[in-house]
Specification:
The complex is a heterodimer of chains A (593) and B (370). Chain A is of the alpha+beta class. Chain A is 38% helix and 22% strand. In chain A, strands 2, 3, 4, 5, 8, 16 and 17 form a 7-stranded mixed sheet that branches. A 5-stranded antiparallel sheet of chain A has the order 10-9-21-20-19, with helices on both faces. In chain A, helix 9 packs antiparallel against helix 19 and helix 11 packs antiparallel against helix 17. The longest helix of chain A has 41 residues. Chain B has one domain. Chain B has 13 helices and 3 strands. A 3-stranded antiparallel sheet of chain B has the order 1-2-3. The chains are: A alpha+beta (593), B mainly alpha (370).
Chain lengths: 593, 370
C-alpha cells in the first residue's frame, strides 16, 4: 500500500513538472509568435523596403531618340537598335542545363555567333567577377544568333546607339549625343528635349549574384522622341564641304567656313566647316573640330563691311552711287594713323569705291555720314546681336556703341576693322540686301515630326526687320554686281552663265594683344546669285591661307563652285547667253594674264 | 498491471499524427520553393533537393510505421547497446577518412552510399538513457551522486565528442534536453539550478574562446551593424519575414532564397515560410508544433510507466526544443546555431529520425490504451 502511495505521489509530482515544462515551452511559442507579429506587421514596411532595396532596382530609361533628316528626308542622325550583352562567367550552362567546363570551346562557339574574337571572349569567360560585359553594341541579328544557341547565363539588354550615316557631313551642325543619349553638341543639343525619348521607368529583380530575373523591354513603343526635318540639303551641304575643303587644302589654310542660305526665307541650305570630324567616333577628334565656327567664332569682316557702309550712306541721303570721292592717291592720314589702298585711286564714285574696294574711299564716306549713321545701319543689319538661329553657341560678335568710337574707329569700321562679326551674321546681312532690305532670321529646322512621321511643329520664315529701304537695296545690288565684273575684285566668283552680286574681303587677323599680324589673314567672299531674284546667298571664309590671302583669290572660286554645282543640282537655268559669253571671255583674259 | 502491448493494431493518435504529416508536407513544398534556384545552380536540376526530401519523407514514414509496432520497452533493455552504438558512431565521424567534411565540420558518416548524421541518433540514445536511468534511480533520485551526477557524466562524454566535430548547437541542445528530462524525472531542482549556475562560466568560456562564436553572439545583439559580414544571414532572414507581412508574397514568390539568404532550405526555411506564407503560415506552423507539444506531454503524463513517460517526454522535448531554437534563431531571438527545424528543414537524418521517434511516441500512446 505504502509503495503504491509513494508511486502515486511520484506520478503526480512528475506530471506537475511535465505541465510546467509544457507551460515553459508554450510561453516560448508565444514569444516566437509575438516576434513574428512584430516583424511582419509592425516592422513590415521598414523591412520589406530594406529587402527590396537589395533585389529590386528601379531603372529609368528613355525611349528611342528621334532621327534628324535633311530637307529631302535623307537620314543624317538615327538611333539604331542594338543589344548590350553580358555574361555571368561562373554560371554559363548549355541547352541541357549542364555546366560548361570547356570555356575555350564556349568562347569559340560564341565568337562564331557574334563574329567576335574568340581569345577576347575566352578572357571574359575566365573572369572571376560575377558579371562582365561582352559587347554593348551588338546588332539584334547577332544577339538572336547567340540566343538561339540556348546558353544560360547570358544577359541581353536591348538599347540603341546613335549613328550618323553621312559621317562627317554637316557634323558641326548636327553635333552628337553621348553614350547616355543626351545631346552634347549642335542640333542634338539644341533640340535635345524634342529628340529625346520619353522617360520610362521599370523595375528589375536581381538575385544576390546580380542576375536579372524579371525585366521589361526597354524598346517599348510610345516613348520615342520626335524627329527633326532640316532646311539643310545634304547634296548642297556636300557641294559646299567639297569646295571649301579644296580651297583650304590648296591654300594651306588653317580652316574655313562656308554658308549657303536662301536669302528670301533665311533657311540654311548648308553650313560647312573644315576641318571636320566624324560624329560616330567624335572623341577620336580634337574638340576644336566639333565647334560650328560659322556661329561661334567671330572675325573681322574686312572689306565686306563696305557694302553696309554704303548702305548707311545711301540711307542717310548724303550721297548717291554717283557721288565722287577723292581717294587721295592711296594715302590718307587720320590723326596719327595713315590709311592705305592696295591700288591708288584719285577720284572714285561711291559705286567704284565698292567695285575696287577702296579703303580710303570707305573712310571718307564714313567721315561724311558720321558714326551714328554707320552704327545704326550696322545694328539694323543685325551686327552686334545674335541672329537667333536655332543652334547652340552663337556669338553676337563685337560692335561697340558709336559713342565710344574715336575718329579712327569710325574710319576703320567702315572697311571692316575694329568690328567682329560671325559668319551667320554676315550672310544674314547680305541676304537682307538680296531680299529687298528685309532681314530674315536664319533657321535650320523646318519641321518637327512625331514617331509616326506626322508633322507636329513647322517653322515658317521670320522677318526680323527692314534693315534698309528697297531702293537702297537695289542700288547696292547694282554695285555688288559690278564687283564681279571683269575688272572687279570678285570676278573669280562668277560661274559660267550666271550673274553674281558679291563683295570680297581680306582681313588681317588680330593677335592676342590686339595688334594686327602681318602674315595672317582671312580671305572672304560673300554674295548671292543670280543678281536679280537671287536664289542663293553664299559666304566663304578661308582662315589663314598661306599661298594667297585675297578673298577674291581664295574665297571667290569656292563661291563660284558652290553656286555653279548647286544651280546644276537645283536645275536653275543660266541667266543669259550674252552674259555667259562675256564672263567666259573675261575668264580667258584673266586666266592668261 | 503493466500493459505495454496495444490492443488495436491499426489505431494511431490522429491528433499527433496529423500535425506531423501536415508539417512534413509543408516541409516538402517549402524545400522545393526554397532550394530550386540553388539546386539549379549547383546540380542543374531544380528538383534535386525536392526529390531527395520526398524520398526521405517516404523512408521516414516507413520508419514511423515500423516504430509504431516496435514495443517501446525494447529500448529499455537495449539502452547500453544504443549508447555504445552512438558513441562508436560519434568517434567514427571524428576519424579522418570515415567522417565526411562539410564546411570544415565533420558531421556526416558515410555508409554504402548513404550519409548519416550520428548526432541525430545520439540524441535518441541520450533520451533512452535518461529515461532508463532516471526510472531505475527513482528511489534515490534526490541523491546528488545517484540521481544527478551519472546523467551529467554521460552528457559530458557525449558533449566532448560532439564539440570536437565541432557542433556547438547540438551540444547546447543535448544539455537543455537532458536538464528538462531530469526535471521531469524528479531530480532535485536545487541540483539542476546550482549546476546550471556553475555551468554558466563554462558556457561563457566556450562562447568567448572561439572567435566565430563570439562574433555570432555580437551580431545577435545587433545584426544590422554587420549587414555584410556575420549579420548577413540574420538580417536577410529578418527582411524575409518583413517582406512577407501578414499574407506573404505567395508560394515560390520569395526573393531571399535567390542567393541572398544562405541555407534557405535547411537552417532558414522558417524565414522562407515567413516571406512566402506571411504571418498566416508562421502562426499555422507554430500552432502545429504547439499541438505536437501538448499531445506529446499528454502521452507522457498518461503513462504510469516511468520509462515510457520519460521517453515520450524526451521525444516531445527534443522536437520542441529544436523547433523553438531554430525559430528563435530565424527571428533573431537567439544567436545563430546550426540547428534545423524538425519535419520542415531539408535533411535526411533529421527527418527520418524525427518521424521514427514520432512512431515510438505512437507506440507509447497505443500501449497505454486498455
Amino acid at each position: 500500500m505504502n509503495s503504491t502511495r509513494i508511486e502515486k505521489q511520484r506520478y503526480t509530482r512528475r506530471n506537475r513538472r511535465i505541465i510546467m515544462i509544457g507551460g515553459f515551452f508554450s510561453v516560448l511559442y508565444v514569444l516566437i509568435g509575438l516576434k513574428a507579429f512584430y516583424l511582419q506587421v509592425i516592422k513590415d514596411d521598414d523591412l520589406s523596403e530594406k529587402a527590396s532595396s537589395q533585389y529590386q532596382k528601379d531603372i529609368q530609361g528613355r525611349g528611342k531618340r528621334g532621327s534628324i533628316y535633311d530637307a529631302n528626308y535623307r537620314e543624317l542622325a538615327v538611333s539604331a537598335d542594338v543589344v548590350e550583352i553580358g555574361v555571368h562567367p561562373q554560371s554559363v550552362r548549355d541547352k541541357e542545363n549542364k555546366k560548361i567546363t570547356d570555356k575555350r570551346k564556349l568562347a569559340g562557339v560564341v565568337a562564331g555567333a557574334l563574329k567576335m574574337n574568340a581569345n577576347f571572349l575566352y578572357k571574359k569567360f575566365k573572369s572571376t567577377a560575377p558579371f562582365v560585359w561582352i559587347d554593348r553594341r551588338v546588332t539584334p541579328a547577332k544577339a538572336s544568333a547567340l540566343k538561339a544557341l540556348g546558353f544560360r547565363g547570358f544577359e541581353y539588354f536591348p538599347t540603341y546607339c546613335r549613328v550618323y550615316p553621312q559621317k562627317a557631313l554637316a557634323a558641326q551642325v548636327i553635333g552628337f549625343s553621348g553614350t547616355d543619349g543626351d545631346g552634347l553638341e549642335g542640333l542634338e543639343q539644341y533640340y535635345d528635349e524634342d529628340l529625346k525619348g520619353n522617360i520610362r521607368q521599370w523595375t528589375i529583380i536581381r538575385d544576390a549574384m546580380g542576375r536579372i530575373f524579371d525585366r521589361h523591354e526597354s524598346c517599348a513603343p510610345g516613348y520615342e522622341g520626335n524627329n527633326l526635318i532640316l532646311t539643310i540639303d545634304a547634296t548642297i551641304q556636300y557641294i559646299a564641304e567639297k569646295a571649301l575643303k579644296k580651297s583650304v587644302q590648296e591654300n594651306n589654310a588653317k580652316d574655313g567656313v562656308a554658308i549657303v542660305m536662301d536669302p528670301e526665307t533665311g533657311a540654311i541650305k548648308a553650313i560647312a566647316n573644315y576641318p571636320s570630324y566624324n560624329p560616330n567616333s567624335f572623341n577620336l577628334f580634337p574638340k576644336e573640330t566639333w565647334r560650328n565656327k560659322a556661329l561661334t567664332d567671330p572675325f573681322e569682316p574686312g572689306s565686306t563691311m563696305k557694302i553696309f557702309l554704303v548702305a548707311a550712306a545711301l540711307e542717310s541721303g548724303m550721297c548717291n552711287p554717283e557721288t565722287v570721292i577723292n581717294c587721295e592717291s592711296g594715302q590718307y592720314r587720320i590723326g596719327r594713323n595713315v590709311i592705305h589702298d592696295t591700288h591708288s585711286h584719285d577720284d572714285l564714285t561711291v559705286h567704284d569705291v565698292i567695285k575696287y574696294s577702296s579703303n580710303i574711299g570707305a573712310a571718307k564716306i564714313a567721315e561724311m555720314i558720321g558714326p551714328a549713321a554707320l552704327y545704326n545701319t550696322l545694328r539694323n543689319f543685325g551686327f552686334g546681336e545674335k541672329t537667333g538661329i536655332d543652334c547652340p553657341g552663337e556669338s553676337k560678335g563685337l560692335l561697340r556703341n558709336y559713342q565710344s568710337w574715336k575718329k579712327i574707329d569710325n574710319a576703320t569700321i567702315a572697311f571692316g576693322q575694329g568690328i567682329s562679326v560671325s559668319a551667320i551674321q554676315l550672310i544674314s546681312a547680305i541676304s537682307a540686301v538680296a531680299n529687298n532690305g528685309v532681314l530674315m532670321k536664319p533657321y535650320i529646322v523646318k519641321a518637327i515630326t512625331d514617331e509616326h512621321g506626322k508633322i507636329i511643329k513647322s517653322f515658317a520664315p521670320i522677318e526680323r526687320r527692314n534693315a534698309i529701304m528697297p531702293d537702297t537695296a537695289d542700288a547696292l545690288i547694282e554695285m555688288m554686281h559690278a564687283v564681279t565684273e571683269r575688272d572687279g575684285t570678285g570676278w573669280q566668283a562668277v560661274p559660267v552663265g550666271y550673274t553674281v552680286c558679291g563683295k570680297t574681303g581680306t582681313a588681317q587677323k588680330l593677335n592676342a594683344r590686339g595688334t594686327y599680324r602681318n602674315c595672317e589673314y582671312n580671305g572672304l567672299f560673300v554674295g548671292f546669285s543670280p543678281a536679280r531674284s537671287p536664289v542663293l546667298a553664299v559666304l566663304v571664309v578661308i582662315d589663314e591661307p598661306q599661298k594667297h590671302h585675297y578673298g577674291g583669290v581664295v574665297a571667290a572660286p569656292v563661291f563660284k563652285e558652290i553656286v555653279h554645282e548647286t544651280f546644276n543640282y537645283l536645275n536653275i537655268a543660266p541667266t543669259s547667253t550674252k552674259e555667259q559669253l562675256n564672263v567666259s571671255n573675261g575668264l580667258g583674259k584673266r586666266g592668261g594674264a | 498491471m503493466k500493459q505495454t502491448q496495444p490492443k488495436n493494431y491499426f489505431s494511431f493518435d490522429v491528433s499527433m499524427l496529423l500535425p506531423v504529416l501536415f508539417l512534413t508536407g509543408i516541409g516538402i513544398a517549402m524545400v522545393y520553393s526554397a532550394s530550386s534556384e540553388i539546386a539549379l545552380r549547383d546540380y542543374g536540376n531544380e528538383y534535386y533537393f525536392f526529390t531527395k526530401q520526398l524520398i526521405f519523407a517516404g523512408v521516414g514514414l516507413c520508419a514511423l510505421l515500423i516504430c509504431r509496432y516496435i514495443p517501446y520497452r525494447l529500448y529499455h533493455s537495449l539502452t547500453y547497446v544504443l549508447i555504445a552504438g552512438a558513441i562508436i558512431m560519434l568517434v567514427a565521424v571524428l576519424i579522418k577518412g570515415m567522417g565526411h567534411d562539410v564546411n570544415g565540420a565533420a558531421r556526416w558518416l558515410r555508409f554504402k552510399g548513404f550519409r548519416f548524421q550520428p548526432v541525430e541518433f545520439a540524441r535518441f540514445a541520450l533520451i533512452v538513457f535518461m529515461g532508463y536511468s532516471l526510472t531505475k534511480k527513482q528511489d534515490l533520485i534526490e541523491d546528488f551522486k545517484i540521481g544527478f551526477l551519472p546523467h551529467v557524466i554521460m552528457l559530458v562524454i557525449f558533449s566532448m565528442l560532439i564539440i570536437m566535430q565541432p557542433d556547438f548547437g547540438s551540444t547546447a541542445l543535448f544539455w537543455m534536453m537532458a536538464w528538462i528530462i531530469m526535471f521531469a524525472g524528479r531530480v532535485r531542482i536545487k541540483h539542476l539550478v546550482s549546476a546550471f549556475i556553475l555551468l554558466l562560466p563554462a558556457a561563457a568560456y566556450l562562447i568567448f574562446s572561439s572567435d566565430y562564436r563570439l562574433k555570432r553572439y555580437m551580431t545577435f545583439l545587433d545584426p544590422w551593424k554587420y549587414p555584410q559580414a556575420e549579420g548577413y544571414q540574420i538580417t536577410h532572414s529578418l527582411m524575409g519575414f518583413g517582406s512577407g507581412g501578414i499574407w506573404g508574397q505567395g508560394f515560390g514568390q520569395g526573393y531571399q532564397k535567390l542567393f541572398y539568404l544562405p541555407d534557405p532550405h535547411t537552417d532558414f526555411i522558417f524565414s522562407v515560410i515567413g516571406e512566402e506564407g506571411g504571418l498566416r503560415w508562421v502562426l499555422i506552423v507554430l500552432f502545429l508544433y504547439f499541438v505536437i507539444l501538448w499531445r506529446g506531454l499528454a502521452i507522457a503524463k498518461s503513462k504510469q510507466d516511468f520509462f515510457g513517460s520519460l521517453l515520450a517526454l524526451g521525444i516531445t522535448v527534443s522536437i520542441t526544443l529544436q523547433a523553438v531554437i531554430n525559430m528563435g534563431v530565424n527571428l533573431s531571438l537567439l544567436p545563430t546555431k546550426g540547428l534545423t527545424l524538425p519535419f520542415l528543414s531539408y535533411g535526411g537524418s533529421s527527418l527520418v529520425i524525427n518521424l521514427a521517434i514520432i512512431g515510438i511516441l505512437m507506440n507509447i500512446w497505443a500501449s497505454q490504451k486498455q
